[in-house]
């Protein structure tokens, strides 16, 4: 009786547009009351235990770092540097958009930070150069998916916390898939540019202009070295890296850029607290939700069911990916990871798959959901920036969905795309 009450209440609340965190918490409360087996103190304990993890400290740090970089001019400087490298290719600022997102992904760990901060810079520049607003919005939304795939990654921190998987190995596993995403998006941009008459053409930057753009952006680019270099060499943990990175970008603005006032930092801290609170509430409520599924032996029932099917492990993995993609269209990605990781991870491990491999795939699936209607967060953010209706923007996104799904399938069929770097760095 517990599971039907839990699932039914969750579905009803989600489709009545109740925020996902409230839907998770309310459905868990209803299930507890219906069962009568557990005191409410157990529910409270599950809520707090979901947030009781040292690794989660990195979440507000990475959010704050991305906000400081977006408002201190670091993002704009990175965009200018990327434009000096690839802006003259067929597709122009579309390629710059993707490359800037790849660079910014090595710092922020958030698709929303990419779409809202760097995305605004990208769209404004593309509009000034005569690009179709729908195309500008579509490539900006699509490229924001790269943010949580290339390390650091807030969703990977959440998955690692829920599964006990090494966050450092997850970060290493996301690097090549993130570059693959960028490559497939650039291919689509190139094809669109070649097939569209009168597509804007950018002037090729000379060596002097590239050098000036590089020097201007170098202090911000060092952030990548600080984060990834320190993590992969074992100098410090991802949590420690997030704190060091915040101190560094704060130092950049204070000593070099001088674009933020002291009062601005108060606002950024407040906005970071709001974002962090939202994520932690989702994690807490989803932990209680997932615990109820676990005590009702749902993972065991699913494992028994799958082992009785006469299908290959690859078919099961494809079905799991399809489910994650579908859920990503309706539910916030972090909530999906917190709820389903304890359910799905035993299944994929029973099938012989590596938890790092599955973790990167799971994050990639739910991040595609952030640009998929009806509830894609990055899609709505980009829609607000461009003033283009979500459905029109979704139509312009169609070619980019092909590239995103194509990159996902390549990662599924060729696991070494994910596992090469973790195996190389952590033997």
Features:
427 residues
Number of helices: 20
Tell me the helix content: over 70%
Percent of residues in beta strands: under 5%
- Unreliable stretches (pLDDT < 50, length at least 5) are none
Report the principal-axis shape: globular
What is the terminal-to-terminal distance? 46 Å
Radius of gyration: 22 Å
**Average pLDDT reading:** 87
Biggest sheet architecture: none
Written overview of the protein:
With 427 residues, the chain is an all-alpha fold. The protein has one domain (39-425). The protein contains 20 helices and no strands. The chain has helices spanning 2-15, 20-35, 40-51, 58-71, 74-86, 93-108, 111-128, 133-144, 154-163, 167-195, 207-232, 238-257, 262-295, 298-308, 313-328, 333-350, 355-368, 377-386, 390-413, 416-425. The termini are far apart.
Task: Please describe the topology of this protein.
Blueprint (H helix, E strand, L loop, with lengths): L1 H14 L4 H16 L4 H12 L6 H14 L2 H13 L6 H16 L2 H18 L4 H12 L9 H10 L3 H29 L11 H26 L5 H20 L4 H34 L2 H11 L4 H16 L4 H18 L4 H14 L8 H10 L3 H24 L2 H10 L2
